[in-house]
Specification:
By secondary structure, the protein is an alpha/beta fold. 34% of the residues lie in helices and 19% in strands. The protein is built from 28 helices and 33 strands.
């Protein structure tokens, strides 16, 4: 889920404003503590309300004095992953307003806990941060945790005998092996003189690097030290403080893509080096030293880069090949001797080895060694100065903004006006960073990009005087940026293809006209992959054998049909989850097998919106004679509090109101809405929910998690309506914190994902798959084979999480290696226009074809028969029905070895598992199948066999029938 962080100032600065105020107002501080003390004792006590009201008045007085001007108009600062909302109401809190009371209580708890933590650690409450954090920084206070861990270890180790390190076991540098020539040796100096006086001077890069040559601060900091030296040599402004007033790169600033503590212990990989370089405004080209990379190509790159001072080649190689101790290492190339074919390695581990000359062929061999930690060969990175990263940085704007707030009105008039009305030049907006088509690496721990700062530039348009910048994109909605600082921080970005638009808008809401008043940026967020021995098929420990559970015999008073109600959206895009539900209804209605017979069960579908009969789902349900009930939920705007920005905020208020109405240990099903003291519009809302769910009373309610507060509202409504059992199917990861009766996951990956284990709760959890109809999805002749075309195909939604930008990037590379290849993309979705524009930008529209979604299975099989290779580019697929359907027709699969895909994709058996998150690796996998028809046939045959063994619909669907019957009877 993509969320917004505070756009105006970092969250730590916001908290500092509150700390400064509370320190200067001792009475308010005592009132705050009294309020929290009362809250912890009894949240319903009258003293609680009085204490909170006293503290609130003090905050309101402070807010009126000018803090309101420094606060963002939308969103909230994120602390520990949760949005912190600042209460704007100036009236005392009423004890009857449960929601506002709880919001204020939570705020005071967070404030006092923060103050107590600062006192415990000895930190001054009004201390301002002395370093500016980069946009990708994780903000986990890693150094503080490291210091606490170190102190704890020292305390635990007091009195214990510590092994002493003898002087004989230490080292003062190492001797260079014979293959290496020390730079300062007579021969090394001679090589330097010859290279610099050579006709084609390949020593230009030496001088900027020599100016910034440093020694790594830690034994494993070779990558960080190399990057700091290169960025300083390229004269890149880090945009944050180093020491004192100076902005300068040093190793401790590189803590955004990986933790410094981890880097100190294990070093960094080539992928992490690339991520750090890109996050700090450098254009990178990276090459793995695989079989397709030749020595001549390497030599050409070295010659080109060493002849200029604007490009630096950084090598990731194995020291062992050079005869040195240790293994993986990073070093920049400081020059090239053409006659001797040698390169100068400016080794940052100067305590170990001096800078030295070495044969280019030997370095090339050292790069070809496999990095055991990721299972990939090493390689090189070319760092280039970004021509667009020349304007003032975020820190510069932040410092100017802070200084301007202290100036008088007369001094501010000295700043040249930039109003649109005062300028004859047309307004412009452009994105400074991230660069268009950037690839960013997500955190392997969280599976998301913790933070990304979007820095943009505006000319001849003053914000907010002339208007604002509107950000928009899939998974984000629309955001109005109304602050002078040209920077927005986004957090929690999951892997996917992102297309964001920046549009200048007048204050009256009309779009600013002009050729450059709109800017676009495309990024790919990818997930680091881990190589594993094989997919987790049915051997994974999970509660899969549902049919082995003891059957409970219950006496029936009378014969009646049980009810299974699916809750679904009718207007949303047709996806795999809806398809699985239709498979269940169709199979049980047709009674295809005795095990799946459900003649005593009635299916229905409920939607909380107006039913549109134009959707694929609605038409199919009508053909199956399944009742569809639409209950649109609408709320008058007059009931919205000013702090509520959208319907989700209102829904959160409605959910919290019900929770606060429950007595101690009271169950939801026992709550009577008429007996509560809730406002009338709240009671009316929940009555409409309960009335809609009454059709499922004493039945089973099935929902697919939508990852928002609506899931929790639906569960509460089902409990109030006395539904017998609630089943939640994991259509997505990251469910909200709910408690249901049964959780069904399509894969072991989804069921055991940390986001599921930490949020969703159920007494029964199963892995159940609907499977595919192997009689419908059958192998056929490849239609295009006669024409000589090789078709690489995709079927599915055109959405962010599908990462289709990777497929188009691979197609761009495929254009040069396969002239008879075609890419066929079938599907509908919110990114259709953006993907077409990206293909046009890549100049590959003549080989890429976009086809509207095909929802008839017979027609879909015909489309699959036109393909030779099927690709699935999503990193965190819960399973992948579209890929299984393609495998059923005998198509080999190319996909990343991650997520639910690992449960059916066998590398080298039924497809090719891409183990590196890059366009080059994906292209290489496709190319291997394109060039080898026999391999395609072998993998396709095994793909069909995989479906027949593990994913047949007639084998999987009976388990759903058994589950529903046991829950009903």
């Amino acid at each position: 889920m993509l969320t917004w962080s505070q756009a105006l100032v970092p969250s730590r600065r916001v908290r500092t404003h509150w700390q400064t105020f509370l320190q200067s107002a001792q009475a308010t501080r005592e009132a705050t503590k009294a309020a929290i003390h009362a809250v912890r004792i009894d949240t319903t006590a009258a003293s609680t309300t009085a204490a909170i009201a006293t503290a609130t008045h003090a905050v309101v007085a402070f807010t009126a004095s000018g803090a309101e001007k420094r606060r963002s108009s939308t969103g909230g600062a994120r602390v520990a992953g949760k949005p912190v909302k600042v209460i704007k109401s100036s009236a005392p809190v009423k004890s009857t307003d449960a929601w506002h009371q709880k919001q204020l209580i939570n705020y005071w708890k967070e404030t006092v806990d923060m103050l107590e933590e600062n006192n415990a650690t000895g930190k001054k409450e009004c201390e301002l941060p002395n370093e500016m954090e980069c946009g990708c920084k994780t903000r986990r206070l890693k150094e503080q945790k490291e210091a606490e861990t170190l102190r704890a270890r020292q305390q635990d180790g007091q009195g214990a005998a510590k092994p002493a390190v003898s002087f004989e076991s230490t080292w003062y540098r190492r001797l260079l092996p014979q293959e290496c020539i020390a730079f300062s040796s007579p021969e090394g100096r001679k090589l330097f003189t010859e290279a610099i006086n050579y006709q084609d001077n390949h020593m230009q890069i030496y001088f900027p690097l020599a100016e910034q040559f440093i020694t790594q601060a830690e034994p494993a900091f070779c990558g960080l030290a190399t990057l700091a030296m290169c960025l300083n040599a390229l004269q890149i402004d880090p945009g944050r403080l180093w020491k004192g007033p100076w902005r300068w790169y040093s190793e401790e600033l590189f803590d955004c893509c990986t933790s410094l503590s981890v880097a100190k212990e294990k070093g960094i990989s080539l992928s992490e080096f690339i991520c750090l370089a890109r996050c700090n405004g450098v254009i990178t080209e990276d090459l793995r030293a695989n079989s397709s990379f030749t020595l001549d190509q390497f030599r050409s790159i070295v010659k080109r880069c060493c002849a200029t001072s604007s490009e630096i080649v950084v090598l990731n190689y194995s020291r062992k090949v050079l005869g040195q101790t240790g293994d993986g290492h990073f070093s920049p190339i400081g020059g090239y001797h053409a006659e001797r074919d040698m390169v100068l390695l400016l080794d940052v581990a100067r305590f170990k080895y001096p800078p030295h000359w070495v044969k280019l062929s030997l370095v090339f061999e050292a790069m070809q060694q496999v990095d055991e930690s990721i299972g990939l060969p090493r390689g090189l990175v070319i760092l280039k100065e970004n021509a667009h990263a020349t304007g003032p940085t975020l820190v510069h704007h932040d410092m100017m903004h802070a200084a301007a707030s202290n100036q008088t009105e007369s001094s501010l008039t000295q700043i040249p006006p930039t109003s649109l009305a005062a300028s004859a030049s047309p307004a412009e907006v452009h994105v400074v960073t991230p660069h268009n088509h950037s690839w960013l690496l997500a955190s392997p721990e969280t599976g998301t990009l913790p933070q990304l700062e979007v820095i943009f530039g505006v000319k001849h348009f003053h914000i907010p005087h002339d208007g604002f910048v509107q950000f928009s994109g899939d998974k984000m909605g629309a955001y109005r940026h109304e602050h002078e600082i040209p920077s927005v921080i986004m957090s929690g970005i999951e892997p996917g293809s992102y297309f964001w638009t920046l549009q200048l808008v007048h204050r009256n809401g009309t779009l600013v006209q002009g050729p450059a008043t709109r800017a676009f940026v495309h990024i790919e967020v990818v997930l680091p992959l881990e190589s594993k021995p094989g997919p987790a098929q049915a051997s994974v420990n999970g509660r899969l054998v549902l049919f082995n559970l003891p059957h409970k015999q219950r006496p029936r008073i009378e014969k009646q049909r049980g009810k299974v109600c699916f809750v679904s959206s009718m207007s949303a895009m047709f996806d795999g989850q809806k398809k699985m539900w239709l498979q269940q209804i169709q199979a049980f209605a047709n009674s295809r097998s005795t095990a799946a017979t459900m003649e005593d069960v009635k299916f229905s579908v409920l939607t909380f919106e107006r039913v549109t009969h134009e959707s694929v789902l609605a038409r199919t349900l009508e053909e199956l004679d399944v009742n569809v009930t639409g209950v649109p939920l609408e709320m008058s705007r007059k009931h919205f509090h000013p702090s509520m920005r959208n319907g989700e905020d209102m829904l959160e208020y409605l959910v919290e109101s019900i929770k606060l109405s429950l007595g101690p240990n009271q169950a939801l099903w026992s709550l009577e809405l008429a007996s509560t003291a809730l406002p009338g519009f709240v009671v009316d809302f929940w009555r409409r929910i309960v009335d809609a769910l009454t059709t499922c009373k004493n039945g089973v309610l099935v929902l697919a998690n939508s990852r928002n507060i609506g899931d929790e509202a639906l569960v509460i409504g089902a409990r109030l309506a006395k539904v017998k059992a609630i089943v939640m199917e994991l259509a997505n990861l990251e469910p909200v914190n709910v408690e249901v009766d049964v959780i069904i996951a399509p894969s072991h990956f989804a069921l055991h994902h940390p986001s599921v284990l930490n949020a969703a709760r159920a007494s029964k959890q199963f892995v159940l798959r609907a499977g595919i109809d192997h009689n419908v999805f059958y192998p056929g002749l490849r239609v295009y084979n006669a024409t000589g075309k090789i078709v690489v195909g995709y079927v599915g939604r055109l959405a962010t999480e599908k990462s289709l930008g990777i497929l188009l990037s691979a197609a761009k590379l495929l254009r040069g290696s396969c002239h008879n290849c075609r890419v066929r993309i079938i599907g509908d979705g919110p990114l259709e226009d953006q993907l077409v524009a990206l293909a046009d930008d890549f100049a590959i529209m003549d080989m890429v074809e976009f086809v509207r979604g095909v929802y008839d299975e017979v027609a879909l099989v015909q489309e699959l028969h036109k393909m030779d290779v099927f690709v699935c580019t999503r990193f965190l697929e819960t399973l992948g029905i579209a890929a299984l359907e393609a495998m059923g027709t005998g198509l080999p699969i190319v996909g990343f070895f991650s997520g639910g895909t690992t449960e059916f994709l066998h590398d080298g058996y039924n497809g090719i598992a891409v183990k590196e998150p890059s366009a080059g690796a994906f292209h290489d996998a496709i190319k291997a199948l394109v060039q080898d028809p026999a391999l395609r046939q072998y993998l396709g045959m095994n793909a069909r066999r995989t479906v027949e063994l593990w994913f047949r619909q007639d084998q999987q669907l009976p388990n759903y029938g058994k589950l529903y019957k046991r829950l009903l009877y």
